Automatic annotation (TrEMBL):
Keywords: FAD, Fatty acid metabolism, Flavoprotein, Lipid metabolism, Oxidoreductase, Peroxisome. This is Acyl-coenzyme A oxidase. The lineage of its organism: Eukaryota, Metazoa, Chordata, Tunicata, Ascidiacea. GO terms for biological process: fatty acid beta-oxidation using acyl-CoA oxidase; lipid homeostasis; very long-chain fatty acid metabolic process. InterPro entries: ACOX_C_alpha1, Acyl-CoA_ox_N, Acyl-CoA_Oxase/DH_mid-dom_sf, Acyl-CoA_oxidase, Acyl-CoA_oxidase_C, AcylCo_DH-like_C, AcylCoA_DH/ox_N_sf, AcylCoA_DH/oxidase_NM_dom_sf. It comes from Phallusia mammillata.
Amino acid sequence: MSIESNLLKKERQNVTFSVEELTNVWDGGKEDTEIRRKVVKVFGDDPVLKSPPICTMTREERYTEATRKCVYIFRNMLQKNGIYPGSKEFEHFWNAMPIEYTLLIHMGAFIPCIMSFGSEEQVAKWLPLSANLNIICTYAQTELGHGSFLRGLETEATFDRETQEFVINCPKVSSMKWWPGDMGLNANHALVMANLIVGGKKYGMHPFMVQIRDLSTHMPLPGVTVGDIGSKMGFEAIDNGFLYMKNVRIPRENLLNKNSEVKPDGTYVKKASDRLMYGSMVNLRVNLPKSQAIDVLAKACTIAIRYSAVRRQGLLNPGGAEVAVLDYTLQQHKLIPQLATVYATKFAGEGIIKKHQAFLQNMAKGNISDLAEIHALSASFKASVSEQCTEGVEVCRRACGGHGYSQASGLPHLLSKVTPTCTYEGENTVLYLQTARYLVKCAKEKAADLPESILFLVQPIQNARGNITSLDNLALYFKNRAALCVQAASKKVNQMSNKGLAMHEAWDKSSVQLVHATKAYVIQYIFDAFASFVKEVKCSKSVKEILEDLCCLYGLHYINNCSGDFLKLGILTAHHCNIAEEAEIALLEKLRPNAVGIVDAFDFTDSSMESCLGAYDGNVYERLFDMAKLSPLNKEPVHQASYKYLRPYLLEGRDILEGAKSKL
Ligand SMILES: CCCCC/C=C\C/C=C\C/C=C\C/C=C\CCCC(=O)SCCNC(=O)CCNC(=O)[C@H](O)C(C)(C)COP(=O)(O)OP(=O)(O)OC[C@H]1O[C@@H](n2cnc3c(N)ncnc32)[C@H](O)[C@@H]1OP(=O)(O)O
Ligand SMILES: Cc1cc2nc3c(=O)[nH]c(=O)nc-3n(C[C@H](O)[C@H](O)[C@H](O)COP(=O)(O)OP(=O)(O)OC[C@H]3O[C@@H](n4cnc5c(N)ncnc54)[C@H](O)[C@@H]3O)c2cc1C
């Protein structure tokens, strides 16, 4: 056994709690752990799902492998293994997915859309076809010229009463659809968001089913120009695409008409609120943070913490042995708070998923009164989590020194996967501003008219009592800060507008404070949700203590990073800030011996991370060497390019050196 493996073994012997029990808490119960492991094993054991490591493949190979595997998974594995939406297996299905996948927009964005925008007949027509991969459909909303400002979208769907068709057109280059996943190569249909025009009148954005490729030849249909947008920062396996449509005709029935309809005579009938058009985005904002950001940070923590426990560099005691870098307080200060972020955002996110499910049940009964609250919450939660996880993964990557820059560490892949979560499904700043709008409105309301999650905004500020680092007091600081920040930002908007600025100008001039206030609001939500979870969870004392420490660390780390805010608002004194700083350092020291145990509890398989630094056995150096040998550049002992371009000068060098030798 290598020295490094031995070090990791010793770390595990020193853990003071049951790793298996923490895994159960993380998964949502013992039964969930069993189900997850069963799903992971079925996928892991299947030889069809084996591929070379992604860092040894070209983009084309990665796209091909991911498509091959995903077609196999969605056609052959899901049903066979009882993995269907609503089942426990489905909840844990992400943990079993290959490291790269395609067809995600088809499965994860289009299918939910057809369910929320389609009438019963339309769902009956399109759902079985798409579930069986008989059609592949992308979600084509963003255009080359517009992504955030949806009222600015330019693609048009004009009703032709004569033929009972819609004519789809992208009037300018900037109007072509750009970015949608699965669109460049795989899709033969697109759910196109286009401006509906009937009898010369514009009715705004509506969803249309548009066939873009021939079903037998897969060739683009007349009027359709479609392709892959090219190499990106990451997502190499995914065919994000462009789609330029010129006079593409679709039948009238292809307007997804659950919420609005165009009758054969051209009458436009609105059946539900326009805002439900945005429902598919709320759905993804609620559901994607876990698999696309939180689990990504959890993997980065697993890699960085295991590696830091075996990487020895420098001395703590002069004259002593070299220490594992995890023993440095500064390394702990980088990495252990990231673990706290993983836990806080995961348990807060579960609360939002439950709230969203309750909203959907009410909506089915015609009640959408909670729409504004769930929109505000999901928008700011997606923004905050994506930001925290992206920053966290980069901290983990840099904490691994030089090896963190190598693809073999798995960290660049994780970083390039988490970074676009700040942009897709709503650019973060734009989403924060949406929530700000809601908060400013709420700040003017009476308590009786507000949902519970927002009541603190209008309630009197309470003073903390007792131990300043207790979870209750930390929760109170976050609430007080959020309330004061929202009130201050609202006040600024009002003052600007009272001075004579138009409302939109007053809003823009206050937008820095508005986004700041929204961040304060969502952090208080996340902290509060995590603290409530920790209080209520049923588990042993030792596991509870780990969770309490992580929760406290999450709060303290955040406060210490922006203590200026708490001081400015009079929530904390300089004395409090000193106590908070020392309390954080003490918690790092306390959690250090359990750090490897806490990441082990995530229970990621080695194959789900493809990391030479983060594998369970800690054999980092052998793995790095083995992976380097697999580099396509090492296929031959002499690479043709170096031979071809360098040889003349090397020969010169040889003659000089050999001449020098003969003179000696
Ligand atoms: C087989 C496995 C599948 C499992 C799937 C499970 C999970 C899925 C997981 C993973 C999926 C994985 C990976 C996904 C990878 C990539 C996906 C990327 C997909 C995309 O990337 S896809 C494009 C998304 N692209 C956007 O995201 C555009 C952002 N841009 C907007 O979203 C709007 O354009 C906005 C908000 C800026 C409009 O701003 P605006 O100021 O112009 O507003 P507007 O006048 O239009 O709205 C007036 C009133 O509507 C309210 N309102 C607005 N939005 C609402 C909403 N959502 N719900 C309820 N109410 C809403 C307002 O609050 C206002 O209310 P009020 O007047 O009362 O204040
Ligand atoms: C990997 C990936 C996958 C994607 N998949 C899909 C998909 O499947 N389907 C799809 O339709 N789209 C998809 N998209 C597109 C994505 O949804 C958009 O890129 C996103 O919504 C942001 O819009 P934008 O690009 O227009 O950014 P812009 O809005 O142009 O943002 C540029 C800058 O302007 C700022 N800004 C914009 N508006 C305001 C404002 N009102 N106030 C202050 N600042 C503002 C932003 O904060 C940002 O800093 C994907 C994108 C990526 C990167």
